[in-house]
Each structure stands twice: as structure tokens, then as C-alpha cells.
């Protein structure tokens, strides 16, 4: 689920787990990040909610096919043509939620630009969230959570798709990249370097540098640095990097990264291939 989407691994895991274990909350707020990506996540999640196979979303059943075409009767879009979502829109949704699903076991409402909701509309939404039924799921899409009442936020599963979450995503890709190199898998390492080249290069270089910095520190302090590591949750990997590379090789890689980042015309693909070559050299 979400395999082709560039979102943070913790978000992928949490939403996939909710669908696979059929422990889906009645309300979600997806905010921040790229609007198109967040929209795709919402529709993929909605497909998982209405899919009736043992391993949802299966992608092949009638529910999944209709969801992919955005033509499922039980996935309803609320999008205002006006400047904001008004109380009349929420009241209409409230009435529709009172009706049983047409085809699936669940009904999913995807509310676009939910942060444009006026105060009366939020009050109406809050009442709806306080009295959920067993088959309705509401997914709010927004750029920010700052405009929502705390009481609304407290009744939603909130996921941040903004830069902070993408840092987690990039860090996971970087971990995978290092692990592949340490295992000596050239083909996989090159594939992962290509994936990293498609990410924000500033975030990628920050992640790689942080791991190499931690490895140097690990070498100098002989491992007694748990509280000083930037990537303390990956201490085992830091230990492996520190054992594999000498300080000179790590410093050479760091120098290359810093010199390359001074250029405004750095080719990300060539940059990552060079980083791979430096890290894979024996």
C-alpha cells in the first residue's frame, strides 16, 4: 500500500496497518506537504477502507477498481466552489452519513481544503465527530492544522505530510542505502542511490552527512556516544559504518559532499553515483 508514493515510512506503516487489521478510525486529518501526493494517499486509503478482500486494498476487486477511477458510490468528495466550506456543506454531509452505504461496508468522505472551514461549520463537524457511526470515515485534507479547533483535532487521527515528515522518509531511504552498500549488493545500492537522487538533494546530503558524522564520532569515542548521536535510533548501523570505513575514507566522502554542494549546478544522479563509489571503495 502506498508503494509508489513518496511519503514517510511511519505514515505508510500506520495507515497500512489500520487497513490490514481493519482498525480504521472514524476521522483523519492529512495536512501539509504536496497536495497531489496527499490526495493520492487519501484515495488509496479510501480504497483500502471499502475493499472487501482479505488483504485490502487488493487493487483488482470492483471496489478497488471504482476507487481508482474515482467512481465509487461510497467514496464521497466534499469540495466547496466558494472561498470556504460552510455549515450547509457539513449539514449535507451529516445527512448523507446517516444513510447506509450503497455498495461497500464503509462510506468514506474526503473533504478538500478542510482548513477553509468556517467556525459554524467546524462546530457542526465537531458534533459529527462526537457521534460517529460504525461505517462512516471522514478524511480531512488541509495545508495546515492551525485553523482547526483543538477539540476537532483531538477527535481525528492527525498525519503531517510536511517537511518534517519527509525528513523521516529521506532518513529511511538513507538507512536502506547504507545497509545495501554494507551488504555488498552493488545492483541494489545503485538502485537506491538513484532513488535518493530523486529526493530533495539538500535533505539527502544532510542525512548522509549526519550518518558519516556519527560514524566518525563513534570511532573517536570508541562507541561510548549513544546520547551524542544524531541518528541514535540507528546506532547499530552507525557501528557497522564505523567498523567498515576508516576515518580518512569518511572524511574524503564528506569533503566531496561539501565541495559538490557549493555548486549550484550539481547533477543529482551523478552526485549520488559518486557518493556510492566513494562509500563502496575498499
The total domain count is: 2
Name the average pLDDT: 89
Strand order of the largest sheet: 2-3-4-1-5
CATH fold topology of the largest domain: Rossmann fold
Oligomeric composition of the shown chains: single chain
Output the radius of gyration.
23 Å
- Number of alpha- plus pi-helical segments: 12
What string, H for helix and E for strand, traces the elements in order? HEHHEHEHEHEHHHHHH
Identify the CATH class of the largest domain: Alpha Beta
Give the strand content: 5-15%
Overall shape: elongated
Classification by helices and strands = alpha/beta
Per CATH, the superfamily of the largest domain is: P-loop containing nucleotide triphosphate hydrolases
Determine the N-to-C terminus distance.
38 Å
> Which percent bin holds the helix content?
40-55%
Question: Which blocks of ≥5 consecutive residues have pLDDT under 50?
Answer: none
Provide structural commentary.
Helices cover 54% and strands 9% of the residues. With 282 residues, the chain is an alpha/beta fold. The chain folds into two domains: 9-161, 3-Layer(aba) Sandwich (Rossmann fold); 165-280, Zinc Finger, Delta Prime, domain 3.
Considering the chains and any ligands shown, give keywords for the structure.
five-stranded parallel sheet, 282 residues, 5 strands, 9% strand, Rossmann fold, Zinc Finger, Delta Prime, domain 3
